[in-house]
Amino acid sequence: MSVSNPTLITFVIYIAAMVLIGLMAYRSTNNLSDYILGGRSLGSVVTALSAGASDMSGWLLMGLPGAIYMSGLSESWIAIGLIVGAYLNWLFVAGRLRVQTEHNGDALTLPDYFSSRFEDKSGLLRIISAVVILVFFTIYCASGIVAGARLFESTFGMSYETALWAGAAATIAYTFIGGFLAVSWTDTVQATLMIFALILTPIIVLLATGGVDTTFLAIEAKDPTSFDMLKNTTFIGVISLMGWGLGYFGQPHILARFMAADSVKSIANARRISMTWMILCLGGTVAVGFFGIAYFSAHPEVAGPVTENPERVFIELAKILFNPWVAGVLLSAILAAVMSTLSCQLLVCSSALTEDFYKAFLRKGASQLELVWVGRIMVLVVALIAIAMAANPENRVLGLVSYAWAGFGAAFGPVVLISVIWKHMTRNGALAGILVGAITVIVWKHFELLGLYEIIPGFIFASLAIYFVSKMGAPTVGMVERFDAAEKDYNLNK
Fold it and tell me: Rounded CA gap, 51 and 34, in Å?
């Protein structure tokens, strides 16, 4: 293996630190609520950075810089859409969901919240939403494992198969051991690493290419259209990229962070921290891909790996421009991005299987210790399925993510958003919303209609289905009372 020792040592130290945090969290995990939501004890900094890190996965440091490197600034519409979507999610959903889950049977998972909020005695809502989580999240986990494998493959010259296991092992270890607390504490460390890497790298690339003016001239000489925000785009194309922002309302791993905040009061502060972090990270990502155009056109002798796979642009710049020790830290940031998202997703899948299948239908009287161990075993099961899905080396990170993101955004987004804002929503409305959203995404993706990103029609149709089906019935008195009590609680404390 052609490996520079400093990079390897940095990686090993970083992974060991993450597993150590997992062991510390293990000591604080006594029951299922601790394992799934950390006993609702997260302060504003951890809530903010953990929501940010669990959202920004490997695509932030690989998929997006690769897209910008290939096509120029016209790809940055995704980033703009994401910032708007994340802000609206913090504004409308975060605080309200935190209060609503508490008032609805102290719900630990989204299916749990839906079944309490809509008094679903049949268990149908719980099963369908848990199945949607498992299907789309397993695809999502696979994308994280592909990104991790790419990193180990290009850094240490391993084969893709070996890299697959190496990248996934550490994440599985600390998620397995420490559950939600481990995931949130490690996320906070990982978010700090990511922002450090994304502010430092573009500055150093600028200096290496000879300053701002030289860089911009080099990009212009290579392809003057790189600066054009509307290059090769159509109205539908821009709307599709901006539509990514809609996905936020329905991502279980981000919504779980809101549910775990220690109180509504910490949400406003968390929103400010999270949005600042996100704008800086996305700005840095766009800059890495964009300045990379100038650097590799000036140094074509080292551009081979990037030409082969543009998603490597950040990895290669880190390896070329930095001292091996610093490069090790920067590459750990990619690993951090991958691990932070993967760990959240494994946990959400495990909690869906444990809380919404095992406890709800198989063993109602199971002890807390038993449930925690079932949760741990489920982490392993989901991870193994995701590794099997990721085994095809042709997988592109961004493609996998976009499908899963759309699936959640359309199936859960409207249901979550409308359930915390509109008190007249009914169980059948929620069911219709989830089914219409998920089916629209799958059908639309299959037929690729109008070239529009499948989340947008999915979101619109699901919202309409919720409204019209809810109008056909009426919520029970209990549902309206709980909604009003939660809303009052929210307005008093926000």
Answer: 17
